[in-house]
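look at this stuff:

>
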Amino acid sequence: MANSTLTKKRSTAYGSTVALKAAMAVTGAILVLYLIAHMYGNLKVFSGQEAFDSYAQGLRELGYPLLPENGFLWVFRLVLLASVLIHIYSAVVLWVRARRARPMSQRYQVTKRVHRTYASYTMRWGGVLIALFVIFHILHLTVNVISPGGASDSPYERLVNGFQPEYWYVTLFYVASVIAVGFHLRHGIWSGLATLGANRANRQPRMNALAMGIAIIVTVGFLLPPLAVTFGLVESV
C-alpha cells in the first residue's frame, strides 16, 4: 500500500503543472542552444562552398574514432527529438489544463491583458508553423528528398539551389517560419527564465532584453543565407 501511494505521488508530481513548465523550460533551453549553433553553421555559406561543405563534413566526423562516423549527429538528433517531443507534450497538456480551468463564460470573451505580448498570442499557431517548417527543412536540406533547384550531395549546393529567385515561394515560406521562430523565442525565453526563478522585479528589464536580443539575433542570422541567395549576394554553383 505504501509503495502504491508513493508511486501515485511520484506520478502526480511528474505530471504537475510546475513539472511540465520546468520540462518546457529545460527542453526549450536545449533547443535554443541548438538554434544558435545551427545559425552559426549556416552563416558559413558566406565563406564559400568549400568552407560550408567542410563544416558539414566535420559534423559527421565529430567524435571519430571514439564514435562511428555520423555517431555524434545521431546522438544529438535523438536528444533534439526527445526535447521536441517533451516540449510539445508539455505545451499541449498545459494548454488543455488552462482551457478546462477557464470558466465557459470567459472562453468566448476578448479581454486585454497588459502582460501578454503579441508573441504570447502567436505561440500556439506559430508552433504549428514551426513544426511544419522543421519537417520541410529536414526533407529539403538534410535528407535531400525535396529538392527545388535540383538535388545534390553538396550541402552548399542544396542551400543555394533551393533559394534561387524562381523559387521565391520557398524563400517566402522560410522567412515566415523563421519570423515565427523569433516570436516563439521572444516569449519562450522570457517564460523559461520566469519558470526557472529569474522573474524578480529587478530582473525584468534584463530578462526582456535577453529574450529580445536572442530572438533578433537568431531570426536575422537564419534569414541572412536564404535572402542573400535569393538576391544574388551568394555565389551560385
